[in-house]
Design goal:
Chain A: It holds the Pfam family ACP. The complex is a heterodimer of chains A (about 100) and B (about 525). Chain A contains two helices and four strands; from the N terminus they run E-E-E-H-E-H. By secondary structure, chain A is an alpha+beta fold. Chain A has one domain: Ribosomal Protein S5, domain 2, CATH 3.30.230.10. Chain A has a four-stranded mixed beta sheet with strand order 1-2-4-3. Chain A is globular. In chain A, about 30% of the residues are buried. A ten-stranded mixed beta sheet of chain B has the order 3-13-12-9-4-5-6-8-28-29, sandwiched between helices. Chain B has an eight-stranded mixed beta sheet with strand order 17-16-15-14-18-22-26-27, with helices on both faces. In chain B, helix 3 links the parallel strand 5 and strand 6. The mean pLDDT of chain B is about 95. In chain B, helix 7 packs across helix 8. Chain B is an alpha/beta fold and about 525 residues long. Classes of the chains: A alpha+beta (about 100), B alpha/beta (about 525). The interface between A and B is medium-sized, with 16 and 14 residues.
């Protein structure tokens, strides 16, 4: 699937992560930009978690920007999933 | 050579001399003393009825004949609002003085301006109980010529008495002073409370300048610093900003996490066997530490307990507890908000003490040795109960030793309060980045997920369990937290030693290595 809209999920609070999605052209691939307060300790872990959610949702072409303030893995997964579903226009329930 | 905690300590460091390895909390005391040679006071004389007043700080500094390689000292009672240290360094730099040893009782956010002076080699050595901000970063990157020495508050007094620090010039801010140099922080527009850290500088420095924005008629009362130690007096427009002393550390936190940790800690104290009439108590400012005072206050009222004394690190919250009769006295070495100064001035049970009396290991009456309970914070703890309060998660210098190791060593019950992780970084480690307080003097670590009791205190663990406190093995707690956060990748530190952590007895308890890139 390919994101159609700009979308975001999360906050800048401590222990949360802000995820922004920008649509890109088909076959542009994944571009993931991460900044994190725990970059030194968890950069690979955050990247792997994001890629795993994108794999699960079958998103191949996307520009994802993550601004992390030390979110735990389940938080990262939830924020990425919410942002992606908003960008696909398939989110159910309230915004 | 290795110290008692297995840390490799160099025997000698160029520019700092020989080092002694840490052997244990009380190992330096032989009989009733710590063998050492004390320095003698500089003999000073002055003809009758001559004035000490100088037109400005520059004139006063010039009269002290500054020289290359000198040691300049300050107190940090104005904390983040200090305006005197930077003024003095700028004056010395204009005069072309270099190779300076800076020995301030601590360094705060007000001292980031030191960075260019360190980088160009004007300041080549630093002694301090704390180093933060940009200054901490550049020292971590190896920009200071000789390794910085981090001492405790009590250790600093010992450092001066034994000649480890030899003050050539001490520039001491006061919120009120007279023409002879009697000085205090207890009143005046920039009142900051106790002047406890400055006493040892005044007594042993070769040249003492009192700087005040409030020159009062003779005599200035109370004489926290007395005239017979003071060489020069300067009236300036400003000694800094006393409103920046507090920096939000003196109000009870609203953080649910900190409040939960504090509630558990107060329960630990209640069931420690020490919660009874005559109890003495010390608590740090800010976060979970101060919140413990809130719950202890409620518990003391509920059980009608009357304590003996509080020491510190005094906040207006502590003053309220004194005024309610929960404690008989406060011994005040440092006031954590400007409002405390009124109590220092007016309440005879609020007693200003010197840092010597507070925590010096080389005397026979340190208040920390009479302490029942102390509550302290931590940046990291480890499975051996060692505590780090000086380096951050990347190994960078960003904190303060303060009175942490002094109070932990003396107190019957030393309680560390900290969350089990902060912003995904686990606080319980296999080994802390830097040991400031050895596990030997830490009894309990309180987190929101359980209480860890030092295995050396099995009776305490049993008493807490009986009282329904969730006591957990620290190794199990570490595993639980690591499973939630993931195990952080540890950054490789460099080979260069950028700072030494001096234990209160003058031995070296740990070394801090350089950090190559700070993000």
């Amino acid at each position: 699937m390919t994101p159609k809209f700009k979308a975001q999920a999360g906050t800048f609070e401590s222990s949360d992560i802000m995820v922004l999605i920008e649509p890109v052209s088909e076959e542009a691939g994944r571009q993931i930009d991460i900044s994190s307060t725990v970059m030194l300790q968890f950069e690979d872990d955050i990247k792997n978690t994001i890629n795993q959610v994108l794999d699960d949702l079958d998103i191949q072409n996307v520009h994802l920007i993550a601004k992390d303030k030390g979110a735990l893995t389940p938080t990262i997964k939830a924020r990425v999933e919410a942002a992606v579903k908003r960008s696909l226009g398939i989110q159910e329930g309230t915004m | 050579m290795k110290n008692a905690l297995g840390v490799e300590i160099p025997e000698y460091i160029e520019g700092l001399g020989e080092l002694k390895p840490f052997q244990g909390v009380w190992e330096s005391i032989i009989g009733d003393e710590i063998p050492s040679t004390n320095i003698v006071r500089t003999l000073k004389a002055k003809k009758a009825h001559t004035s000490k007043l100088c037109g400005d700080l520059k004139e006063a500094v010039q009269k002290c004949n500054p020289f290359d390689g000198m040691t300049v000292t300050f107190h940090h009672h104005l904390r983040g609002g200090d305006g005197v240290l930077m003024q003095t360094i700028e004056i010395l730099d204009e005069m072309g003085i270099k190779d300076i040893t800076l020995a301030s009782s601590s360094l705060t956010s007000a001292h980031d301006g030191l960075v260019p002076y360190v980088e160009k080699g004007m300041i080549t050595r630093i002694f301090s109980s704390g180093i933060r901000g940009r200054l901490g970063e550049i020292i971590s990157m190896g920009k200071l010529k000789h390794p910085a020495i981090i001492h405790s508050h009590g250790g600093r007094v010992r450092d001066i008495l034994t000649g480890r620090i030899k003050p050539d010039l001490s520039v001491l801010a006061a919120s009120a002073a007279d023409e002879e140099g009697n000085a205090t922080g207890a009143h005046g527009p920039s009142a900051f409370g106790s002047m406890g850290y400055a006493d040892i500088d005044a007594r042993y420095s070769k040249n003492v300048i009192i700087v005040t924005d409030n020159l009062v008629d003779y005599p200035c009362v109370p004489g926290s610093i007395r005239q017979h130690f003071v060489d020069h007096v300067v009236k300036v427009d400003s000694i800094g900003d006393a409103t920046k002393i507090a920096s939000g550390t003196t109000r009870i936190t609203k953080s649910p996490m900190d409040l939960r940790i504090a509630r558990i800690a107060a329960t630990v104290i209640e069931h420690s066997g020490l919660f009874k009439d005559g109890m003495s108590f010390q608590v740090g400012a800010g976060g979970a530490s101060l919140a413990v005072a809130k719950f202890l206050r409620e518990d003391m009222k509920r059980k009608d307990i009357k304590g003996s004394f509080m020491i510190g690190g005094v906040t207006s919250y502590g003053v309220d507890m004194l005024n309610e009769g929960l404690f008989q006295a406060i011994f005040d070495v440092q006031s954590f908000d400007a409002a405390v100064s009124t109590s220092v001035l007016n309440n005879p049970q609020h007693i200003e003490i010197t840092c010597d009396q507070y925590a010096n290991p080389n005397n026979c009456g340190a208040m920390t040795n009479k302490l029942d309970v102390v509550v302290l914070g931590a940046l990291e703890v480890d499975v051996d109960f060692n505590v780090n309060v000086i380096t951050g998660s990347s190994g960078e210098i960003r904190g303060a030793s303060g009175g942490h190791s002094d109070t932990a060593s003396g107190a019957n019950l030393s309680v560390i309060v900290c969350p089990s992780f902060r912003g995904r970084l686990p606080i319980v480690k296999d080994r802390v980045h830097t040991i400031v307080t050895p596990g030997e003097s830490v009894d309990v670590i309180v987190t929101e997920r359980g209480v860890c009791v030092n295995p050396s205190k099995p009776n305490l663990a049993a008493a807490l369990k009986k009282a329904g406190v969730k006591v957990v093995d620290i190794n199990d707690l570490k595993k639980e937290v690591d499973a939630m956060t993931g195990v952080p990748a540890e950054k490789q530190l460099g080979d260069k030693i950028v700072a030494l952590v001096e234990y209160r007895d003058g031995t070296i308890i740990d070394v801090i290595h350089n950090v190559e890139n700070l993000s």
